[in-house]
Amino acid sequence: MNAHRTKVCIIGAGPAGLLLAFILKTSGIDCLVVERQSRETLEKTIKAGVLEHPTIELFKQLGLGDRMMQDGAFHHGFELAFGGQRHRIDLMDLTDGKYIMVYPQHEVIKDLIAANLAAGTPIYFEAKNVMLNDISTSQPTVHFKQAETDFVITTDFIAGCDGYHGPSRQAIPADQRREFTRIYPCGWFGILCEAEPSADELIYAQSDHGFALISTRTPTVQRMYFQCDPNDDVTNWTDDQIWDALQKCVHNETGWRLKEGKVIQKNIVAMRNFVCETMQFGRLFLAGDAAHIVPPTGAKGLNLAVGDAVVLSRALIERIMHDDEEGLKHYSEMAIKRVWRGEQFSSWMTDLLHDFKGEDPIHRKFRRAQLEQIVSSRSAAASMAENYVGVPFARA
Ligand code: APR
Ligand code: PHB
Question: Is residue 396's pLDDT more than 90?
């Protein structure tokens, strides 16, 4: 048995856990990270790809932005495609100069792991059977096994950053949690393909064939999605069928088509909203997907995780360095406001762009009317743009 002590034991090395660890460690707070997967797996798993303006600025301020600034692609707008036409939403113009960046989440993970290791944060990869104990006492423990060795970490605080399926949220007694869920009757069929970009900016397409999103990863690898049955299986689809589905969704009057290429990865993304209130119990504090999930439309997931890590790090620093309890006491209510804003926006944007099986045809008409309003009214477009580039992090 290997026994250690720390101030903050962080469970999960996703964006939430790694960012929290980096901020704490570089502020002089002893912490460590316990992660189920290997470093190699984390650094190559394809996930989201959009950083909001506040996330970009934060990474730069923290000295985490070097590779991001070199390899990420700034996007000053995006397009809405519907009714056979493409319309540009000029983010810079509508938000007083804000923008987003396409920089894959696994690259963020690489940067955060490297920065943490350089700062001296211990990260226990491939930790099995992670268990949280005594979270309502002042000395909780986290038990796990790495290789053949059992570990016990005695800690002042636990940060549960272990995603939707991790053990942290379940450690909060069920009668203390209120959970809100919306499950969508569709999923996203996502591909990575070897092709040049088809357009300079992301395209969100609404069509009689359903929704599609044309995104990018690098100048030679593109990321695209189209709406699918959430229970479908990627092996049911040949490359030709995939391209046919995508081309139909973006079909437009100018004859413009997607540049096709070899499909190198396929996956189906489930779509749901989920929020757990509260995000704290005793000495346990949840951050990121452990407490909330958004549908991928609008790319809020990673950015909400970053927002939680910022609020939680501030509260822990105040408590540990200055013996000030206030921030920690109100962590959940502070963090959850921005979370609900992201949840509502993602839900709204999903409704705006997807057709749902079995719905009354009147909804397609409503959808089209709202899209027409967004592309013809500056205030409607500005509202969408303001949410899309990301709202500021919560402040005490
Ligand atoms: N023990 C230790 N670690 C665990 C356990 C466990 N039992 N269960 C899960 N984890 C780890 C996962 O392996 C993962 O690395 O917790 C981490 C959680 O990371 P994310 O799922 O990336 O969640 P988060 O940091 O909140 O970031 C949210 O990630 O999945 C995307 O769409 C999501 O973009 C959003 C972002
Ligand atoms: C992505 O590139 O994976 C992406 C981009 C925008 C979204 C969702 C996902 O809204």
Answer: no
